[in-house]
Amino acid sequence: MHVDEKDGKEVLVCTVGKTVLLYDIRCLEDLHTMLKKHGDWMELGSADEQKPAKDGTVEAWGRSENNPVGGWDGLKKGLRGRFGMYIPPLMEALGLAEVTHDPKGNKMRAK
């Protein structure tokens, strides 16, 4: 993952094999703020864009019309999902969150 510029705006670039996903850079601060308000562990709930996200998960929040950007934090149509898979580990590495590392049902909370 790295920060780049697209159409004059900073974006978070996530490269997985040959697939390149783009996320609104502000998602890091927005998610951290939401998790602080939430105050407890939240399930990640990663899902592809074509599949519905489980309610109450980080993935669902990253798609919600009620989040600060008013919808998808993913920017590349067709590849806007997996927010709950790729953003939490980056937030953990940046020291903004704790993430569990279980075989299934992982969760995160703000630091």
Brief overview:
The protein has 111 residues and is α+β, with helices and mostly antiparallel strands. It has three helices and six strands; from the N terminus they run βββαβααββ.
Description of the molecule:
The structure is a single chain. The chain has about 110 residues and is of the alpha+beta class. The chain has one domain (about 25-110). Helices cover about 25% and strands about 25% of the residues. The longest helix is centred in the N-terminal third of the chain and has 12 residues, at about 25-40. The model has no long low-confidence stretch (mean pLDDT about 95).
Explain the layout of strands and helices.
Blueprint: E1 2-6, E2 9-16, E3 19-24, H1 27-38, E4 42-43, H2 58-61, H3 83-93, E5 97-99, E6 107-110
Antiparallel strand pairs: 1-2, 2-3, 4-6, 5-6
What can be said about the biggest beta sheet? Answer: 3 strands, antiparallel
Domain count: the total is 1
Spatial shape = globular
**Radius of gyration using CA atoms only:** 13 Å
Q: Which percent range describes the beta-strand content? A: 25-35%
* N-to-C series of helices and strands: EEEHEHHEE
Q: How many angstroms does the end-to-end distance come to?
A: 21 Å
Number of E-state strands:
6
**Average residue-wise pLDDT:** 95
Strand order of the largest sheet: 1-2-3
Helix content: 10-25%
Number of helices: 3
Poorly predicted parts: none
